[in-house]
Amino acid sequence: MAKVWLLLIFVILEAAIVVGQTTDPYDRSNPVSAQTQFGAVEGFIHAASDGTVSNVFLGIPYATPPIGELRFERPIAPEVWLNTLETKQFRNSCIPYNYGNVKVPISEDCLYVNVIAPSEPSDDPAGYPVLVYIPGGGFWYGDVIRAGFDKATKVFASRGLVTITVPYRVGLYGN
C-alpha cells in the first residue's frame, strides 16, 4: 500500500512540475512581423499590465548553431531562411561554467537575440534609440531569459527604447 501512495505522490508531483514549467501567463496570439537580413520573423504584440504595448521577437538566430564541428569556432552568420521564422519563445540559455543550480533550459545551441520594441513607430526620423543588454557573469554564467520581455516592455519600451538582449557562449564554450 505504501508503494501505491508513493507512486501516486510521484505522479502528482511530476504533473505539477510539468504544469509549472509550461504555464505562461502571456498571450502570444497577436502576431507582428519584421524583415531581417536573413529572412522574415513573426513575433507578437505584448500588452503589459501598465498599459505599455511592445512588439516582441524572441529567439532570432544571429549565428549558425555552434555545435559539432563549430563547437569551439567563432560564430558564423546564419543561413538565409525562406519561410517566416516564428520567434515567440525564448531559446535555451548558453551552458554556464557551473550549471548545477541553473533554473533555465541550457544548450550549446544558444546564439539567438531577443528584441523588444515600442509598438508605435517613432516620431524621430532616426528611429528609437537602442539598448543592447549583454548579461554579466565574467564569461562564467549569465542569461537573458530571467530578465524577460514583460519587464523590458515596462521599463524600456515605455520610455521609447528598443531593447536587444544578446546571449553569448560562456565557460568552456566561450573562452
Keywords:
single chain, 175 residues, alpha/beta, 7-stranded mixed sheet, two-stranded parallel ribbon, disordered N terminus
Major beta-sheet overview: 7 strands, mixed
Q: What is the residue-mean pLDDT, rounded to a whole number? A: 80
C-alpha Rg, in Å? 19 Å
Tally of discrete structural domains: 1
Strand content: 25-35%
Low-confidence stretches: 1-23
Query: Fraction of residues in helices?
Result: 10-25%
Q: What is the number of helical segments per DSSP (H or I, 4+ residues)? A: 2
Beta strands, count: 9
Overall form: globular
Q: Ends: how far apart?
A: 54 Å
* Structure class: alpha/beta
Along the chain, the helix and strand elements come as HEEEEEEEEHE
What does the model show?
The chain is an alpha/beta fold and 175 residues long. Helix content is 16%, strand content 26%. It has two helices and nine strands, in the order αββββββββαβ. Strands 1, 2, 3, 4, 7, 8 and 9 form a seven-stranded mixed sheet that branches. A hairpin with a 5-residue loop joins β2 and β3. Belongs to the type-B carboxylesterase/lipase family. InterPro entries: AB_hydrolase_fold, AChE-related_enzymes, CarbesteraseB, Carboxylesterase_B_CS. Residues 34-174 form the Carboxylesterase type B domain.
